[in-house]
Fold:
Amino acid sequence: MIVALNNKSNLDCQEFQHYQEELKKIKTNETLILCPTFLNLGQFSSDTISLGSQNVSSRGNGAFTGEVSALQLKSYGAKYAIIGHSERREYQKESLEEIHEKLLRLLENDITPILCIGETREEREQGRVEEVLEQEILTAIEGMSEEDRARMIVAYEPIWSIGTGIIPTNQEIEEVFQFIKTFLPKASILYGGSANEENIDQLNQISLIDGYLLGGLSLKVEKLKIFLQKLEK
Ligand code: PGA
Structure:
């Protein structure tokens, strides 16, 4: 299973030093991917934990103040990059087209995209889940080769689950995963949104899940260890 850790905008320089030492002590057979802030990404290296970013520029190197390019990420050892996280779609007003451009920059640099998709509570209540997800998927992967589609990672993160402690029912997750598979049958699909050491037993029952994208839990190493132990059961 893939377990991607999204630190979000957390951990200062000193905190990260301590954090990474603790993280590196974890023993697991799962594929761990650490996605720290750009600053901390530059300081991290491990033989067992892969490196990912939380974002990437939609352009290459050049006069784009404040941006970090895929080429730069690659040079620092990033093998994965989260794109289209709902927090960026909301607060940075990232458009579907921009996310598509980001995906292209990653593929050009052999970085595996972790494309986040998900609906709001309101969209679910309106019965628009499939419509929203279809648009997010299709605009992102437009023109992509079969080969690139197969090596993509999609993270289904219902926006109403992120940081709320509420997760969908197993049936709701299964329905969405089946739907995503109609567009991307070979991609790995992660679940994200309040996944933790307590609800992992319930989530474990869903065979379609290829892994998890963890936000809050990524910062709590002891609880993360319990999560990983339960995952391996
Ligand atoms: P959460 O965040 O695990 O804290 O809900 C997940 C995410 O936003 O990727």
